Amino acid sequence: MTEGTEDGWVLVAKAGSRDRADLADLSLVLSAVGIDQQIDRHNGVILTRKRDADQAMQELRAFREENRYWPPPPSAVRPIVRTDNPPTLLMFGGLIIFYWLTGPWLTANPWFKAGAVDSRAILEQGEWWRLVTALTLHADQLHLVGNCVIGGVIVHLLCKATGYGMGWLTLLPAAMTGNFLNIILRDTPHYSVGFSTAVFAAVGILCGRQLNNKASTIVRQMVLPLGAGAGLLAMLGSEGERTDFGAHLFGLACGLICGLLLQLTDLDLLGSRRWLQLFLFLVSLFLIVLCWLLATGGEYPVFPVDALSGISR
């Protein structure tokens, strides 16, 4: 229904106090179809001439119908989880101390004979524990420093995001799977060591947590996380004499899947549960120790006497 006025103008739209910002949109609709109008912002109304009133109301009705559900309601934002400070220095300090015990990769080094990724030993003899023990071995000091500096930052961020127990217990299986895929897809024997597979798995987990995020656009869900992971892989994981590109690539891919599973199951929101995180962290440590016990038979590896003269620490 319209209301008449003495000067031949009639009211076709009236906005409440909360909707007066929409008057400009309604006015734009009428202007687009060439309908003269007057806007009374004080009273929140739009007036048109009597001859245009019916057409104006139809246009405004159609506009409101088309935009009934716009803008869409905001999606629920995933809460920020408050976690304890991760034991990053403890874990990477342990890698440094362990390198001091094992030394570099030499032919006669019993640590590497027992714990390095050896495709034949894993696939033919079932020595699956090498997929874990190899993560704790480093070929040389440069290899060690690179993994500790870059990996320390990335793993610390992962543990802050998911809780340190959940972070490490997710990181190890992702890195194990990455190492496994790296050997089963090769036609030749393969040997490798280093924590870098786990570093790229951590990158993948962080990126995977952003996939399927209802609070993000498709660009943030897919392009940015995958682009970030691929960029880091290109910069840090594809060059160098001893760089194992396959392990880095599969570590990243397995991390993406694990990160997505964490996000879908909301397991990454359990970071504030201190006792649970401690338990999961201890399980992760136990897995590493168990793998080394299986690798060494519970005995401390000793260099052959004739090889000692060629070793420098």
From TrEMBL:
GO cellular component: membrane
One of the GO biological process terms: proteolysis
Membrane topology listed for this record: Multi-pass membrane protein
Species for this entry: Candidatus Electrothrix marina
Gene3D superfamilies: Rhomboid-like
UniProt cross-references to Pfam families, sorted A to Z: Rhomboid
Residue intervals passing through the bilayer: 88-106, 166-185, 191-211, 245-264, 276-295
Name this polypeptide is given: Membrane associated serine protease, rhomboid family
Domain Peptidase S54 rhomboid: 126-262
